[in-house]
What we know:
67% of the residues lie in helices and 0% in strands. The chain contains nine helices and no strands. The N and C termini lie far apart (39 Å).
Amino acid sequence: MSRYAAGEEAAFEILLSRYSRPLYSFLCRYLGRADRADDVFQDVFYEVIRARKSYRPQSRFAPWLFRIGRNRAVDRLRRNGLRDMESLDRAANPRQEDGDPRVDTIATGNPDPETLVYGRELGNALEEALAALPADQREVLWLKEKSGLSLAEIAEITGVSENTVKSRLRYALEKMRAVLAQQGFEP
């Protein structure tokens, strides 16, 4: 971002290619629908372009970008009458409904049918376990596992302490293990 702020136009393409997939995936999860995520995604990168001249690198770019994304997503939910991520428990899973290829997919290769069935069952169990999590735990888990952000970066994005992020992550993983174990999967 510093290079882009200094006028190097090609640096924007690097930012876009590096952060598009994890940010879009996070927004799809957070907003529950790909069409909402598309709009917010565009808003976030418009903000990157707009902030180019005033950008001051006080921390890493990823937390700054994801904080913008999260704030824009929260604004979008509020505009649509949804108060927080808990309202999304009723929302459709974008992977299942719209089949958007940008949302996380599993690379398949040519596995045997038994492996395919097991993978599909495990994927469904994981989705169910994720849906059972409270919104704050689901959010930190997504940011950690799907975006690869550090605990400090997640704390910065969510506006809570790093210890709170650790607790939420620990509780999320414990709950997911319990749900998977109930369904017969060895966590």
